[in-house]
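sry for the spam today, last one i promise. C-alpha cells for design, 124 residues
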C-alpha cells in the first residue's frame, strides 16, 4: 500500500510562492500517476495537477496553468508542486494522491491512495 505524507504548506501573501512536497513511503508496482488536489472550505475537491511516473507527462487544471508546476524525484520518492503567483483563491487544503489506473486525469475517484493534506493560505 502506498503511504503519502505532504509538507510545505503555510501562509503567504498574494503573489508569493510555495513548494509542496509529498513523500511516498513506498510505491507499489501498480502506481502509474500521482497528483495534487485541493479542497477549500465549503467547496468540492478540485484536481490541480497530475504526472505520469514513467513518462513525466503532466496535466493541469485551467485555474493553475502557468503558475503551478508538478514534478517528481523518483530517487527520493517525492512529488512536488511548485506554486507561484499565488492568489487568495488558491487557499485550500492540498492533498497528494496516487493512482494505479491507466488514463487517469484529474478525477479524484481514480486515485486510490491519499495523504493527510497540508494547508495553504494566501492572504490579499
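last one done:
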Amino acid at each position: 500500500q502506498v503511504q503519502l505524507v505532504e509538507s510545505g504548506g503555510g501562509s503567504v501573501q498574494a503573489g508569493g510562492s510555495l513548494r509542496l512536497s509529498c513523500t511516498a513511503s513506498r510505491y507499489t508496482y501498480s502506481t502509474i500517476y500521482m497528483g495534487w488536489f485541493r479542497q477549500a472550505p465549503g467547496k468540492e475537491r478540485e484536481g490541480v495537477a497530475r504526472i505520469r511516473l514513467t513518462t513525466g507527462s503532466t496535466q493541469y487544471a485551467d485555474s493553475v496553468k502557468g503558475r503551478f508546476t508538478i514534478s517528481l524525484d523518483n530517487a527520493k520518492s517525492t512529488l512536488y508542486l511548485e506554486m507561484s503567483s499565488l492568489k487568495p483563491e488558491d487557499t485550500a487544503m492540498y492533498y497528494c494522491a496516487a493512482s494505479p489506473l491507466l488514463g487517469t486525469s484529474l478525477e479524484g475517484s481514480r486515485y486510490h491512495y491519499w495523504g493527510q493534506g497540508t494547508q495553504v493560505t494566501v492572504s490579499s
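The longest strand covers residues 92-99. ok im logging off now
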